[in-house]
């Protein structure tokens, strides 16, 4: 139950509403038992033709108890649901606060459909923990104890029979139900996750599936997953219905036992006959209050499983004991230093970086070049605190990166990653993600600088930029970075899909805006690097060369050979 710690804390913070709900539930339960007991006693009394005032008093009591039960039941429903919604709100806030800093890593290691199922479905499943698991037993115990004490006044034997029946309802019936539910509920959860994953992947890959003629096959797979889930849900529902039927059978069996035992006690003179109907009605009503115990095991299993999946999702983030205390200054360009940094992705057989040493002074421009898989992008991810190095130390402004809030780094940085996400809306919406209130003229100027003068701010952008070419996506990502600004520029292959002329135009605009800023540029093309303060050449996770363009060309080493190969490929000659 350690996974439910956060849920328990959230419940404790709603203790006022929970206390009111429990009080309402207790009053409603006792009111119901009293109402039907008084009704049974009233029916019995009418046989003996009592005085009229006796009947008037009894009828008035029944009406008052009915009104009390209705009001208290309404209060119970109101405050239990209010507490539940507040608990869910706190759970979502807590879960997302832990998930957001680790989202890039989680998106790489988990299928998006399964992650979506956890974020939405599992959090939603926890609403049943309070309503169906934690709350009913407490109220039931209070109502049951009061009913047993009431029954013991008239017959200790009937009170004992009620205790025996309640033990069967609370422990034996749920155990039987749990035995049948265990395998079925596990299959339901697996099928629900499979359906969510299949649906998400089909939506994301719809165009590719259509082009390659595999859409019909995926549709059939999705239908099979849906049918399998529906079948398992029907089986789970039938099993739950069987459990409720078993509970009802036990409840009526106890009521019949009270009738038989009461008749025997009346024959022996141990019980007045006028109280028999009252005790039978009390037994029926109190066991009706225990109906929630029949479904408790299933909801308990669902809550535990959902909490476990959520804990698995954020456990890496919770394992980080140290909380950053410093913030990166946003008014000056930062210096960057990597000292002996090594990093290896989970489940990878070789490290992405090995003993990397880099020094980028404040306000300087550095280019990182090298073949694919040499570790260039990993450096950007480490600087953004998307990962932490396995060895070594990273500093910004001579402050260890682990001591800096990642939010302050993100706020100070203008970032363009290899894969930029675009949201459905207008170009204006996608340029103003950080909420800056730029004027129309400033936004249009940014589009011109990014090589998109023909685009209107009101042009529609589909989800993930589906209606944009790869080059337009990169230019819009650059325009977004220019609109945001900052004194730290981290650009990962920002112009790989652009022609040389457009690339040179954008770089001129970019370097003009970032004149006094720190800029780190990852690129494959080696043209246009003459203006960089330093060029870092990487191969297989290590730095093989570093220096200015002229120094590296004079050295005629790794960079020189790369440059010669590029010239040959583009037909410039040797």
Automatic annotation (TrEMBL):
PROSITE patterns: ABC_TM1F (PS50929), ABC_TRANSPORTER_2 (PS50893). Residues 19-288 form the ABC transmembrane type-1 domain. It is found in: Cell membrane. It is a multi-pass membrane protein. GO terms for biological process: cell redox homeostasis; glutathione transmembrane transport. GO terms for cellular component: plasma membrane. Residues 307-331 are annotated as: Disordered. The gene is cydC. SUPFAM superfamilies: ABC transporter transmembrane region, P-loop containing nucleoside triphosphate hydrolases. It comes from Paenibacillus paeoniae. This is Thiol reductant ABC exporter subunit CydC. Keywords: ATP-binding, Membrane, Nucleotide-binding, Transmembrane, Transmembrane helix. One of its GO terms (molecular function) is ABC-type transporter activity. It comes from the Bacteria. Residues 336-565 form the ABC transporter domain. The chain crosses the membrane at residues 20-42, 48-68, 129-150, 156-178, 249-267.
